[in-house]
Write a structure and sequence with these properties.
By secondary structure, the protein is of the alpha+beta class. It contains eight helices and four strands; from the N terminus they run H-H-H-H-H-H-E-H-E-E-E-H. The protein has helices at about 5-25, 30-45, 45-55, 60-75, 80-90, 95-110, 125-140, 170-185; strands at about 115-120, 145-150, 160, 165-170. A four-stranded mixed beta sheet has the order 2-1-3-4. Helix 1 (about 5-25) runs antiparallel to helix 5 (about 80-90). The longest helix is centred in the first third of the chain and has 23 residues, at about 5-25.
Length: about 190
C-alpha cells in the first residue's frame, strides 16, 4: 500500500472509531447508519459537495461553514455533523468517503453482518437477491448485505466478493480460461 493511501486510511479509521464510539455510547447506531446512507447518497449526487471536500481553494472557515450548513440541511445527527465540522476545521474532509466505508464495516461487524459485493451482467430481481443472500448466509454463517452492481461485460453469471474471498462464475472468466488453455495447447 502506498504511504499517502495508508496515511489517509489511518486518518479515516481514527475519525470512524471516534464517531462509532460516540454513537455506541448514545445508543444511536441505527441513526448513524441512516445518516451514513444520507451522506453517501449526497456525495454520489453532488459534485459541489465532492468539490468542497477535496478542493484546497476553500479556507478552513468556508469548509466548516459549508459542511455545517449541508449537514444541517440533510438532517444529520449531531455526532456525525460535529465530526464533519471538526474534520473541516482540520482540513480532513478528503477522507470522508473512507471514513464512511470504515463506519459501515464497524456497524456491520457489530450487527454480525458482512457485505458481499456482487457483480452481475443484468440487474438481479428481488427473488434472486434474496436467494443469493440466503445461500451466502448458509455458507458464511452471518447475515449478508448485498452491494450489487451491473457490468454487462461479464456476459453472464456473477462475481461475488466477500471479504478476501472471491467467487467468479462469469462467462467472461470462463472464456478467458478457455482462451488461456487454447494458447497452451497450440
Amino acid at each position: 500500500m502506498s504511504e499517502p493511501a495508508s496515511i489517509s486510511s489511518g486518518i479515516a479509521s481514527r475519525y470512524a472509531t471516534a464517531v462509532f464510539d460516540l454513537a455506541t455510547e448514545d445508543k444511536a447506531i441505527d441513526g448513524l447508519a441512516a445518516d451514513l446512507d444520507t451522506l453517501d447518497s449526497a456525495m454520489a449526487e453532488s459534485a459541489e459537495l465532492r468539490d468542497l471536500m477535496s478542493s484546497p481553494i476553500y479556507s478552513r472557515d468556508e469548509m466548516q461553514a459549508g459542511i455545517g450548513a449541508i449537514a444541517s440541511a440533510m438532517g444529520l445527527g449531531a455526532t456525525l455533523a460535529n465530526a464533519l465540522k471538526l474534520m473541516a476545521s482540520k482540513r480532513r474532509l478528503f477522507v470522508v468517503p473512507a471514513m464512511v466505508a470504515t463506519l459501515r464495516d464497524m456497524i456491520a461487524e457489530q450487527k454480525g453482518e458482512v457485505t458481499a459485493d456482487v457483480t452481475t451482467a443484468k440487474a438481479l430481481t428481488k427473488t434472486q437477491s434474496e436467494k443469493l443472500a440466503k445461500a451466502l448466509k448458509a455458507a458464511i454463517g452471518k447475515d449478508v448485505n448485498l452491494n450489487t452492481t451491473v457490468d454487462e461485460s461479464i456476459i453472464g453469471g456473477l462475481v461475488v466478493k466477500v471479504g478476501s474471498k472471491m467467487i467468479d462464475t462469469s462467462i467472461r472468466s470462463k472464456l478467458n480460461s478457455l482462451q488461456n488453455t487454447m494458447k497452451e495447447v497450440g
